[in-house]
Amino acid sequence: MADFFTYSVYFSTLFLSVVFTKMGFNKQTLKRNYRGQVLFVLLALLVLVIVSGLRYNVGKDYQGYSYLYLEQPYYDDAIGMEIEYGFILIVDTLNAIGLEVWAFFTLTAFITYFLLFYSFKNYKSLLYLGVFFFITYGFYFFSFNGVRQALAMCALALAVAFIQEKKIFSFLGTILIGGLIHKSLFLFLPLYFVLDRIRLSKYIWYGAFIISLGLHFLPLASILNISTFFSVMEDSQIDYSNFLEAANSDLKVTGAITLGFLARVGVGFIVLVYYEKLTKLNPYYLPYFTLSLIGIFVYNSFSTIHFIGRINNYFLLFHIFTLAFIIDYLFRSKQKLIANTILLYFLILFFSNIYYSDNGSAPYKFIEF
């Protein structure tokens, strides 16, 4: 359970980052100057970085990353730890300078949130909504825990922007560099060539949504054998064979109806309802809805399998785009009651995430210098 200080820190972070972003990239400012008021956007970025980078013992993997930074066990052959070269470069460089572990968390936070902000480069006026959903839906707290993967997820979001701009070398560069921080990002290398080809009707997505809810309650061990998948990936840059035992155990568990599951199913349904209308109004929204809906299907079906859930976070991140598109549409079409109801829904979800210490986010404590 969180204390008053924790709620104050997180709600202040939400308020300041959203307000500063809105001030920097509001539509009137962008009409006068397409760059916007960058200073306000940088202030929003700074707020997110300070709270994330200067935390102490906050986040489930905080101790684990502190250990990696301080002890550098990947150089010990007896341990046999394999870790990405980009991560090693960051850790070794900061250690060589003589900086403490807070510098690692601050630098990775800056890179992660910068990539997030830049991924909205074609939708600057909606960045404030993207920041709102990034924080309230739980991705901000996830970045406290899955530090490397959160960075890679935001790199993928930027890579999708490059797909829309038909910039293949920028896409490949972003994926390759992000993959050096978290190798799972390499799985998305083919995305450039297939994403724009996926154009499914709303009826197919509704059918997939219903099927996914049914799969949630099945003992998947009776119909899936994912050991073959892990065997194929063994000894490659995207080897996840170490997850095999845990994954096989997860397959024996059937899904349960929890408040967290229902909350996320509800979010998925909101995205699904507006899929056809918004992709017809703006075809450039289609890739974001496609990735978001894939995430919905996978989450509904396999939320009990930890490994699949971690990979699926890449898809679920695109909720922040689709929800931003939806809220913007609702405000522009004078449907303020629906828009404000959705925003309130996410504020309640945010409060709940703090209360239950999502990803080890509570209680919050700043580092002592």
Structure notes:
The chain has 19 helices and no strands. It is an all-alpha fold. The chain is globular and about 55 Å long.
Quick synopsis:
This protein is mostly helical and 369 residues long. The protein has helices at 4-24, 27-32, 38-53, 62-71, 85-97, 101-118, 127-136, 139-145, 147-164, 168-179, 191-194, 202-215, 227-233, 244-251, 259-281, 286-302, 306-316, 319-332, 336-355.
Structural shape: globular
Span between termini: 26 Å
**Would you tell me the overall average pLDDT?**
90
The helix/strand class is mainly alpha
Q: Name the helicity range.
A: 55-70%
Largest sheet: none
Radius of gyration: 20 Å
Question: Could you tell me the strand content as a percent range?
Answer: under 5%
Extended strand count? 0
Instruction: Output the helix-strand order.
Output: HHHHHHHHHHHHHHHHHHH
Q: Point out poorly predicted stretches.
A: 232-239, 247-251
Helix count equals: 19
Provide key terms for this protein.
369 residues; globular; 19 helices
What is the topological layout?
Blueprint: H1 4-24, H2 27-32, H3 38-53, H4 62-71, H5 85-97, H6 101-118, H7 127-136, H8 139-145, H9 147-164, H10 168-179, H11 191-194, H12 202-215, H13 227-233, H14 244-251, H15 259-281, H16 286-302, H17 306-316, H18 319-332, H19 336-355
Helix pairs in contact: 1-3, 1-7, 3-6, 6-9, 7-18, 8-9, 9-10, 12-15, 12-16, 15-16, 15-18, 16-17, 18-19
